[in-house]
Write a structure and sequence with these properties.
Elements: E1 9-16, H1 23-34, E2 39-45, E3 54-56, H2 60-67, E4 71-75, H3 77-84, H4 105-110, E5 114-119, H5 131-140, E6 143-146, H6 149-154, E7 159-160, E8 181-186, H7 195-202, E9 209-214, E10 229-233, H8 237-245, E11 249-252, H9 267-274, E12 278-281, E13 298-299, H10 304-316, H11 318-335, H12 338-351
Parallel strand pairs: 1-2, 1-4, 2-3, 4-5, 5-6, 6-7, 8-9, 8-11, 9-10, 11-12, 12-13
Length: 352
């Protein structure tokens, strides 16, 4: 009787290794830690540090045959559809961001290689993504991981997994109650991130507060009449930790966008929460899958008075506010920590 072949994983990404990608970088580091025989491939190989060699995508087929790859893992809808050759609907609509040159579907079928994917917001997954694309993925993927309610509803077999947070890197630090209340806003520039709302809020606060701004917001700083802020610009992960550890409150002022989809909490917010920051945030999609409002964070409407009221409450009740931040940090550690999330994914991949 022929014994079953040993399972071995390959991870395929587009741009990698890339620390600015956040969860993708940390997740791959943890995959390598838990499964050191994993092979990694990227369409555009970067020169950033990573604990093992990252190979060019063009080498995948030959190396998969030589090394007995049985399973492939990737993140994002457009990459999964590209690899599976299902980037176009019968209507002729192409999935945004997909690439016909990445189609390895015939090779995967010939070698009986299973494909597993994580569908997080972005990467072709938006508010108006046609359901037929999800149906194509459901039919062709062995495992589907997601934190998107619409995916969980459309694909009942999909597996809920929060975004990966490297809680050892973004480690908890008890906040000082002396000095100014440090606020931090961190996001890549985009209308839905709500910088104008942030500015309206901060302009109404007194000098008890200081604001740290991270991201490419230089063109928007003129909106801030309150000058008690520090602008850092974009920061790499190794520099974010020290800012977050000195921060009392992380602000997320995002709103719903017809063109793009954000998870909840956004990754930057979860990173900050891991260090003990109190999250004060909108929740545009009413996501209740992980965090409990009033216990793990404070939820507000996308209105300046709502943020101002909560921040003034923090000023008058700083110790109580930091206790919510501490509870939020414990929830992030319990649900989002990369070790546990990756262990769960690997379990499902190799049990499939």
């Amino acid at each position: 009787m022929k014994s079953p072949r040993k399972r071995r994983l390959a991870v395929i990404d587009t741009v990698f290794p890339w620390k600015q990608s956040g969860f993708r970088y940390w997740e791959c580091c943890e995959i390598f830690h838990q499964r050191p025989d994993t092979l990694f491939f990227a369409v555009n190989v970067q020169r950033e540090g990573f604990p093992t060699t990252v190979h060019r995508f063009e080498e995948f087929k030959e190396m998969a045959k030589e090394n007995g790859i049985t399973d492939v893992y990737c993140v994002f809808l457009n990459l999964a559809c590209s690899l599976l050759g299902c980037r176009t609907l019968p209507s002729g609509m192409n999935l945004p961001g997909s690439n016909p040159h990445l189609d390895i579907s015939t090779f995967l079928r010939e070698k009986s290689i299973r494909l597993h994917t994580t569908l997080y917001p972005g990467g072709g997954m938006g508010p108006d993504t046609p359901a037929p694309f999800l149906s194509l993925i459901r039919e062709r993927c062995t495992s589907i991981f997601t934190n998107v309610q619409e995916v969980l509803d459309e694909i009942p077999s999909s597996i809920f997994t929060p975004v990966v947070i490297q809680t050892d890197h973004y480690s908890y630090k008890k906040k000082s109650l002396n000095g100014k209340i440090q606020l931090t806003f961190a996001a890549n520039r985009g209308v839905r991130k709500g910088f104008s709302l942030l500015a309206n809020v901060f302009n109404q606060l007194d000098d008890t507060f200081h604001l740290n701004i991270i991201g490419d917001w230089e063109r928007d700083l003129h909106l801030l009449k309150n000058r008690q802020f520090t602008y850092y610009g974009p920061l790499p992960p190794e520099d974010l930790t020290s800012v977050y550890q000195q921060t009392h409150v992380f602000l997320y002022t995002g709103t719903q966008d017809q063109f793009a989809l954000d998870g909840f909490p956004v990754t930057a917010a979860a990173d900050a929460m891991s260090t003990g920051c109190l999250l004060i945030s909108t929740n545009p999609r009413n996501d209740c899958l992980t965090l409990v409002a009033g216990k793990d964070y404070l939820e507000v409407e996308a209105m300046s008075y709502a943020f101002v009221n909560e921040l003034n409450w923090v000023k008058d009740n700083t110790a109580a506010a930091m206790k919510i931040g501490e509870t939020g940090a414990m929830t992030i550690k319990k649900l989002f920590d990369c070790k546990g999330v990756v262990k769960k994914k690997i379990h499902h991949i190799f049990q499939s």
